[in-house]
Structures are given as structure tokens and as C-alpha cells.
Design brief:
The chain is mainly α. It has a single domain, classed as Growth Hormone, Chain: A, CATH 1.20.1250. It contains 18 helices and two strands. The chain has a two-stranded antiparallel ribbon. A hairpin with a 2-residue loop joins strand 1 and strand 2. The two termini are 20 Å apart.
């Protein structure tokens, strides 16, 4: 039976909580390297701090997906996991920016920050995944591209707010420098306000969205009684996964490999090439940290605009590939730019790739899946986001040594080259797009 056609408002409500979740994710993406550099981390070890979060995601997301497939309670099917993830996220968002404020040694502060980062990324992913699952559950094939585009719009709007928070608080007079080993108040307050918005947005979606009961879900997704009672085996599901699962996963590998380096090395890269400083204790470096948030906000604007262009491509794969190529050009161009405002062009192009990464993989994949194991497959698919980040984190320090410049006062110069590496990775992702085969283009 065809799933009901949803109004724009219904699809908006399905994803509105994503706005708050993405604010938290944007604050993490734009400020983690800045926080750890301020606490005393060496640039060669910065990427290592990103290993634990995706590793936990690879473990947690398939479990959450499989459990939510079997969860039917008065609070919903996917929503209980959304609530738990959001609750943990707001607690950690209050603790993480204070990692240097508990009178610990540098090593202890870095260890505490790493644990908080692991919990934050895990909880954000736990809160984020139910939104993708609910769209897969409740939206028909004809509307999925539109529904995921709305989700992408809200995602990028949340990113825009999260990225600009530190710059905004600095602009209104909140201190942007702090004693050595401590995080500036502009960053700390950004996390506090972001946590408050997150819980309000999640509560809104929880109040407005009513998930289907087991009978309606089975009816609209064509699941027979014997299939409902069938026990799921994750390994067997992987073996039986449609080819599109693996083909899109390869594109995901190159895409998320690239963006991990953007999040890790943009601040250090532009601090050197634009502000002429690699010392985290300087005002210039912290100004570069603020500007990184502005650039990521520009990326979000580019994503919002490009998300409206993507549906105009008659062939979804062509749109996907073109988007990644534009992002690659954006990354590589940063090497040649030494003006902070000219970097806007680079990150507008990067936003094109981000828009495609948010919408196209899930639209293509969910149209290749049956409804009975949707949550489990989406949880497993999250590994195609986590694994490349783990690999990129582990090899980041070695790549930096290979492509970077000299070591000055214990700090590696040439971090901007890591964005060039990111651009090359996106080009490989664009090539991989053309190998995707699905039942129908999204």
C-alpha cells in the first residue's frame, strides 16, 4: 500500500528537531580542534582526538537502529532514542568547554576533553539518526527527495547558527581570549546556548510527530506477519544488503575522509596563511578560530542554496558527482588564497558538496531498501560515515608530516595542505558516484 502523501508542514515537523541537533554538531565541528589546541594538544595529535567519536558511532548506531526497529511504546518507535541522545548531548555540551577549568594537568584535561568529545559525538549521532529513520519510515518514495531536502535545509540552518555563535558572542563583547589552557568564554557560552536550543527543538518534534503503530507501519511498508516476527541478524543483513549500500558507502568514504580534515585543520591552516600565527595562545590564532566558524557558516549558506538546485538535476548521480567536484575545487583553492574574505568563495563551493552528502546518500539508499529493516540498515550505513573518519584520524598526523612544512616551536606548519588532501579525496568520491546502481534515481 502506498504511504500517505504528507504536507510540507508534516515533513517540516518530522525534521525540525534536526535544527537543534545540527547546532550542537556545528559547534563540535568548528571548535573541537580549537579547544584541544588551546588545552595544549600538538597539531600532529589533533586528528587522533577524532578517532573515538566515530568508533563509538560504529558500535552504537547499528545497535540503536536494530533496537528501534523492534521498539514500540507509548513514546514512539524512534523518538525514545532521540530523547536519550539529546539529554546526554546537552549535559556533555555543558562540560566539554570547561575541560581546562577543573585545575587538572594538561594531560588530564586533554583526556577529560577526549572522553567528553566521544560522548558528545555519540549522543549527537544517537539524536540525529532517528530523524533519518522517521523520514524513511513515513515518507513515500515520490516525496523522499523533498523530505530529505527539507532535512538538509534545517540541518544547514542549524549549522549556520552554530558556526556563527562564537563570532557573535565575541562581537557583543564576550571575552575571546582566556588564560593558558582554558577555553575562551565566547566558545563556552556558545555551547551553553546551543544545548538549550537543542532540547527545545527536540521537544517540539516529539510533540508534533506521532509515529505509526505496528499495524500501520507493516501495512504501509508491505511487511507480512512472518517478516515482523523474523529475528534480525546484522551479519546476515550485511550479506544481503543491496549493491547500492556498498556503492554509496564507497562515495561516503571519500567524502567523510575529506570533511574530517576540514574540521581538524581549517583553523590552523588559515591562522598561518591569513593571520600569520600558529600559536594558539595568540589573539591572531583565536581570531582565526572565530573566522573558521564564519567560513563554516558560509559553507552552510552554500549548502542551503545548492540544496534547492540539486532537485533540478534530472539524474541524481550527475548532481551528486558535480556537487563533490565543486567541493573539491573549493578545498584546493584555499591553498592559493591569503585573504580572509576571498575564502568565502572556497567555502561556498565546499557547501555544494556538503548539501549533496546530507541528502543524496539517504535518498538513494532508502529507495533501495524494504521497510522491515530500515532502522538497522541506516544504523549500519552510519558506519560509512564513521569508518572514513577513523581512518582519516589515524593517518592524519602522518599525512601532515608528509605534506606540511617545517616544525616551528613544536608546531607543524603547512596545515592548509590538509585541505588540498581533502579536495583530492572528494574528486575520488565524485568518480565513485558513477558506479552507483539503484532501483530508481532519487
Amino acid at each position: 500500500m502506498q504511504k500517505p502523501t504528507l504536507s510540507f508542514g508534516q515533513m517540516w515537523n518530522l525534521s525540525f528537531g534536526f535544527f537543534g541537533v545540527q547546532i550542537a554538531y556545528a559547534l563540535q565541528s568548528a571548535n573541537i580542534s580549537r579547544i584541544f589546541a588551546t588545552l595544549g594538544a600538538d597539531p600532529h595529535t589533533l586528528s587522533f582526538f577524532w578517532v573515538l567519536p566515530p568508533l563509538m558511532g560504529m558500535i552504537v548506531q547499528p545497535i540503536v537502529g536494530a533496537m528501534s526497529d523492534k521498539t514500540w511504546c507509548k513514546w514512539g518507535r524512534r523518538k525514545p532514542y532521540l530523547y536519550v541522545g539529546a539529554l546526554v548531548a546537552i549535559i556533555v555540551m555543558a562540560l566539554l568547554p570547561n575541560s581546562g577549568s577543573f585545575e587538572m594537568t594538561v594531560k588530564a584535561a586533554l583526556a577529560f576533553g577526549a572522553i567528553m568529545l566521544m560522548l558528545l559525538d555519540t549522543s549527537i549521532n544517537m539524536a540525529m539518526q532517528p530523524f533519518k529513520m522517521m523520514v524513511g519510515d513515513m515518507v513515500n518514495e515520490e516525496q523522499k527527495t523533498k523530505a530529505y531536502s527539507i532535512q538538509s535545509l534545517l540541518c544547514n540552518a542549524g549549522s549556520l547558527v552554530g558556526y556563527l555563535f562564537p563570532y557573535f558572542f565575541t562581537w557583543i563583547g564576550v571575552r575571546n581570549v582566556a588564560p593558558e589552557g582554558m577555553v575562551p568564554d565566547s566558545v563556552t557560552w556558545s555551547f551553553y546556548i546551543g544545548a538549550a536550543i537543542l532540547i527545545l527543538c527536540v521537544l517540539y518534534t516529539g510533540a508534533k510527530v506521532k509515529e505509526w503503530n505496528p499495524e500501520d507501519y507493516a501495512k504501509y511498508n508491505g511487511i507480512k506477519q512472518e517478516e515482523k516476527e523474523e529475528k534480525q541478524n546484522i551479519l546476515a543483513l550485511l550479506v544481503d544488503a543491496p549493491k547500492a549500500f556498498w556503492q554509496i558507502g564507497l562515495v561516503q568514504f571519500f567524502s567523510w575522509f575529506a570533511f574530517l580534515y576540514m574540521w581538524t585543520y581549517t583553523t590552523g591552516g588559515i591562522a598561518e596563511t591569513v593571520w600569520g600565527s600558529i600559536n594558539p595562545a595568540t589573539l591572531e590564532y583565536q581570531a582565526a578560530g572565530d573566522w573558521t566558524g564564519v567560513l563554516f557558516a558560509v559553507q552552510a549558506i552554500g549548502s542551503i542554496v545548492w540544496a534547492m538546485v540539486l532537485p533540478q538535476f534530472r539524474n541524481a548521480k550527475v548532481g551528486y558527482a558535480v556537487s563533490l567536484v565543486l567541493g573539491a575545487v573549493g578545498f584546493i583553492s584555499t591553498y592559493f588564497i591569503h585573504d580572509q574574505y576571498m575564502l568565502f568563495v572556497s567555502f561556498l563551493l565546499v557547501g555544494c558538496a556538503w548539501a549533496a552528502m546530507l541528502a543524496m546518500p539517504f535518498a538513494l539508499l532508502t529507495n533501495s531498501l524494504s521497510g522491515k529493516a530500515m532502522g538497522t540498515y541506516l544504523g549500519l550505513f552510519n558506519c560509512t560515515i564513521c569508518l572514513p573518519q577513523i581512518v582519516a584520524s589515524l593517518v592524519g598526523g602522518f599525512i601532515l608530516k608528509g605534506v606540511g612544512g617545517d616544525v616551528v616551536d613544536g608546531v607543524q606548519t603547512g596545515q592548509i595542505m590538509m585541505l588540498v588532501v581533502a579536495g583530492v579525496s572528494l574528486l575520488l568520491g565524485a568518480l565513485a558516484v558513477m558506479g552507483i546502481k539503484t532501483r530508481r534515481d532519487a
